[in-house]
Automatic annotation (TrEMBL), chains A, B:
Protein name, entry field: Transketolase
Pathway: Carbohydrate degradation; pentose phosphate pathway; Carbohydrate biosynthesis; Calvin cycle
Family statement drawn from the similarity comment of this UniProt entry: Belongs to the transketolase family.
One cellular component term from this protein's GO annotations in UniProt: cytosol
PANTHER family in alphabetical order: TRANSKETOLASE, TRANSKETOLASE 1-RELATED
Gene3D superfamilies: 3.40.50.920, 3.40.50.970
Binding residues for Mg(2+): D162, N192, I194
Domain Transketolase-like pyrimidine-binding: 358-529
BP term (GO), one: pentose-phosphate shunt, non-oxidative branch
Site note Important for catalytic activity, residues: H35, H266
Organism: Allosediminivita pacifica
Keyword match Magnesium: yes
Length: 680, 680
């Protein structure tokens, strides 16, 4: 690459873009870790995008109608931090740049959305950003349809690398974007031909242009170092309104550095002499971390360029009716509507009176049927299991190219893409996404489910068919370890409600979260309503509570969740008939119970009685409640799964794996008489 | 669709294919669950494939040189069971067909490889089969290169549905197949245009032909009900030897049934009248589950057609040298070579003497460097992190179109595709795959890692950078819950070795597994060799053992794994200095420890002393060892993570999150003096 030629053709642009290059080189070198080459290679694209196209106001990074910029190639985080610092972002200061990758800073190794307002999403696990961006673009379409172009009118830009495009989730993402004609989504492919192991071609020879076209995208190919070509391509991409656009940018990783066009250039360039030589090549003479004032001034102009547009937008917002302003503010703040509480309570009361016997997936549908009409910000969907996940309610309408008001998304057989796009919708703000699949396919959605927890977004994952109760489809479709998987994940609420009432309570809690995703673990099979006496209080909020007290001396406590609470109640009946006082504790949410104070936990799980837990999943996670807590039981056992399931009708499976009232009662009796020692 | 026309044009073929249709219809109706439409729609393709192309001998389903047939669209399992029964497979009898989806049968809802010899792989979670098939085809290339065409010379056929092709893993799979020019891989796309939620177009409008071409495949489009076209397409696909082939088969789901071309047709067709009407349409007059003898005879002829070829193959095998025959038999049986044991012991001895201080990922490389030369069946690889995962050894060579003897695979940024293809390699037999990525990306590979466990294949997942010890890359790359995730999965060995010696022991165990996958959890950061006195016995085989005994009265036991064993030893030193007798238990594998008898477990974890566990992950899974076991400790605590990590240098992170010798020692002291109660 002839750097001299690039410099001479566009001298001003070159130096402005090179400010990004120099910051990346300096910050990575100082941190002695990170990725220098990507920011250096994509500096030209970023400079043109920010200065000529991106609608934003650096001083107000939370302006709702800003264009969204997502760095899917998150390892190139210094590109984003450099842009934010240069533009005058109030949070990404020069000190933060110098503090790259250090404890307590905002400039983490990969961009973390919760560390700075201007960071739209957390990226680094490859492919997530491009899949998030699909959600961002969908959210914009939905909100524009609802609130009008005066309030919602922006684009979503995303930079993806070769890694993003090799990951499977990119396939799901680009398929969705193409299918739903997301014309305001513009993706830049950093086509630098290099991965960590070597040239891209050692592991991939796909024709990305043809691939994106096959998915229904508008595609352009440009020299990613030519500012005029970049500008023209973005302009052309914006002009295509019925298709997402991909701009394949041929770039040189670590441009102008000794490591240019090599794998080494992908990583941390820390050799002082080589870095000095690169700066000399670039014509960059400023000391480390210093930006010549004329360049910094220009960038600050870029950062404030959107101020006028923001002012006009604020004026338009203030011209809207009071109720419209309030509603817009409410949904953008993620506040639940006032009516939600009464709606949930009414459903609980009705269920406690009519005692429906339904699967909790059906119970979930009953909740959504009353919630969705009063909560127009919900966005439902399923990964091609709508009828099984019970996620669609009649009022929603189907999101499509000709119905942007539709609130239900047919995600197709794309659990991962769905989860990642839902995260994008939630991150955009103004909408509250939930989506369904079979619980076993938590596995497919895992990378995005973890990121929801890390990113602190309240996405709701509706996971039905939550045990061997799924029946004949067999062990590939029967979750066994998936409750443990979600419970092991920090900042995640896992609900496994036992009936309609608990399902309503779980949704009530999930829909009020601002920082925590929820996993709803729901049955395929019908369950009785056990909460037969209406209480306005949300008992599930404490995570676990006494569902049925022991009659006579309390000798045993059975703890259960979901479909096994019915089994616990039947076991209790048998035990009480034999004179064994037995308490049943329903535990719909371990995480919330763990958050209660010790006094409450001890009231629910007092020491003394034997404890048996029953759940049609693996034991991991239950030991704490069986053996732990002050004044703990001396004897405890678990009734559940210790292997994968099998293909057979559900009732036979529960018999086969010994998850029955009889088995539970027997275990209690054995523990009490001491013929069988505690299994621990 | 004009059924009459189809019948009249190819009357013999029609009735033979319709035997598959009738069996599927009857079995699903009897089970009252399952998927009728796919077998009905793909019966023509399957009939032509089995009768004219597939090299197999139904009576010897374990013939090593058979063609592999993989039903990626696993919900259509009755197609496979019907084929096997009709061809005379010894395990899939008529009783099994009638017992479809019932307890204890071989004919599970989705094909399970461990239920019948002829079932090559377990499918159902969509996209897995097509990704497995890439591994099967790679294995064939590698073994043909090693043992020659006389012994290894077969094709891999796979049927994939729209669901398989929407899943992200299909993108990774077809990218790999295209890149590696797997000319003997032939995929049929069941292009029926229907998914569960409706027509495919409601969620996807991709151009699959263009997409496969973009990935480097040879593609044909045919009428999937025209036997001549099917035959010609397969012939043409076989003639293309440098590219994988995709045959897009336009089919009608539930052909001839009232539910044809509808979502309903995807599921269980159980309406007796409609089913009778369908059979009438088909011209099928035999009673339920009965196959007219001339049709059954013809199919049995299909089943025995390969007998001669098999005989010739056996003759060729017997002509090979003794050592060649033995080696072929050994690798196909998955037996470790005799030299393995001595090789591992020599490395252990050397390490115990020289006490290297290396990361366990590096230790793993040291093991592989001595193992790979004596174990030519290993296939290594990494998802674009070769230098970080330390998975490549000098002797391996790189697998490529011009080097089929290469044993190292550059999988690209495709963790899921890698894991699923490794499963395919293992299922093929003759090779032992291992592959690496960062442990945090367990999430990406999860669906295939679970299937390895369910399918009972000994794939080894090399997961490096296994904690916050990863450092500056931050929480997106720092596993916290992933040890718990893998430990919660049935039939999975999770090793977290503490030093070179334990790493060698872990590999020794992993490479001898026949039915169980292994997760190797390895550090980025350097660790001292703690096992400084050589023992030929594999101490890790018991899962946990006393690494350092208490001096004086035993007051505390510290249990740790991996990088935290060093911390435990340092804490012990401090405690002993203060007169507190402290035992350190190294626990590299919880699963193996759980399998030991009670006497051993009690020897390692006797009651009485306080117990503190330390591991840089979440607590879930540790409660059992802290609180459980007979004669359990009264007081226990855990030192580890209860949140996501952060971006900073590793040492600072361990300090920040309080995972230090000081913190552990303090916890022990507090428990002993009782100022801090047990945390449970």
């Amino acid at each position: 690459m002839d750097i001299e030629d690039l410099r001479s053709r566009h001298p001003d642009h070159w130096m402005r873009a090179t400010a990004l290059r120099a910051l990346a080189l300096d910050a990575v070198a100082k941190a002695n870790s990170g990725h220098s080459g990507m920011p250096i290679g994509m500096a030209d694209v970023a400079t043109v995008l920010y200065s000529k196209h991106l609608k934003f106001d650096a001083t107000k990074p939370d302006w709702h109608d800003r264009d969204r910029f997502i760095l899917s190639a998150g390892h190139g985080s210094m590109l984003l931090y450099g842009l934010l610092y240069l533009c005058g972002d109030p949070e990404i200061t020069l000190d933060e740049i110098k503090n790259f990758r250090q404890m307590g800073g905002r400039t983490a190794g990969h961009p973390e959305n919760f560390l700075a307002t201007a960071i739209e999403t957390t990226t680094g696990p490859l492919g997530q950003g491009i899949a998030n961006s699909v959600g961002f673009a969908m959210a914009e379409e939905m909100l524009r349809a609802r609130f009008g172009k005066k309030l919602v009118d922006h684009h979503t830009y995303v930079i993806a690398g070769d890694g993003c495009l090799m990951e499977g989730v990119s396939h799901e993402a680009i398929g969705l974007a193409g299918r739903y004609g997301l014309g305001r989504l513009i993706a830049f492919w950093d086509n630098n031909g290099i991965t960590i192991d070597g040239k891209v071609e050692i592991s991939d020879r796909s024709d990305q242009v043809k691939r994106f076209e096959a998915a229904g995208w508008h595609v352009q190919e440009i020299d990613g170092h030519d500012p005029d070509a970049i500008d023209a391509a973005i302009t052309a991409a914006k002009a295509v309104t019925d298709k997402p656009s991909m701009i394949a940018c041929k770039t040189h990783i670590a441009l102008g550095h000794a490591a240019q066009d090599t794998s080494k250039g992908h990583g941390a360039l820390t050799d002082g002499d080589q870095n000095d030589a690169a700066k000399a090549q670039w014509g960059w003479t400023a000391p480390d971390f210093e930006i010549p004032s004329e360049i910094k001034d220009w960038w600050e102009g870029v950062g404030s360029r959107g101020g006028a547009a923001r002012g006009e937008w604020e004026a338009r917002l203030s011209e809207a009716s009071d109720s419209r302003q309030k509603e817009f503010a409410r949904v953008m703040a993620g506040e639940a509507p006032k009516k939600l509480s009464a709606t949930i309570k009414a459903l609980k009361k009705q269920a406690s009176e009519t005692l429906p016997k339904v699967a909790t997936r059906k119970a979930s549908e009953m909740v959504l049927e009353v919630v969705n009409p009063v909560m127009p910000e919900t966005v439902g969907g399923s990964a091609d299991l709508t009828g099984s996940n019970n996620t669609k309610t009649p009022d929603m309408g189907v999101f499509d190219t000709d119905n942007r008001k539709g609130r239900y998304v047919y995600w197709g057989i794309r659990e991962h893409g769905m989860a990642a796009a839902m995260n994008g919708i939630a991150l955009h703000g103004g909408l509250r996404p939930y989506g369904g699949t079979f619980m076993c396919f938590t596995d497919y959605a895992r990378p995005a489910m973890r990121l929801a927890a890390l990113m602190k977004v309240p996405t709701v994952f509706v996971m039905t068919h939550d045990s061997i109760g799924l029946g004949e489809d067999g062990p590939t479709h029967q979750p066994v370890e998936h409750l443990a998987i979600s419970r092991a994940t920090p900042n995640t609420l896992v609900f496994r409600p036992a009936d309609v009432v608990e399902t309503a309570e779980a949704w009530d809690i999930a829909l009020r979260q601002s920082d925590t995703p929820t996993v709803m673990s729901l049955t395929r099979q019908g369950l009785p309503t056990l909460r037969n006496s209406h209480k306005t209080a949300n008992l599930s909020e404490k995570g676990a509570y006494v569902l049925a007290e022991a009659e006579g001396k309390r000798q045993a406590i059975i703890i259960a969740s979901g479909s096994e609470v019915e089994i616990a109640m039947k076991a209790r009946e048998a035990l009480q008939a034999g004179g064994i006082g037995t308490r049943v504790v329903s535990m719909p949410c371990m995480e919330l119970f763990a958050q209660q104070d010790e006094a409450y936990r001890k009231r629910v799980l007092p020491g003394g009685p034997v404890r048996v837990a029953v759940e049609a999943g693996v034991r991991m996670g239950w030991e704490r409640w069986l053996l732990g807590e002050r004044g703990r039981a001396n004897k405890a056992a678990f009734v559940g799964m210790n292997s994968f399931g099998a293909s057979a009708p559900a009732e036979e499976l529960f018999e086969h794996f010994g998850i029955t009232p009889d088995a539970v009662a027997t275990r209690v009796r054995d523990l009490l008489v001491g013929t069988t020692p505690s299994e621990f």
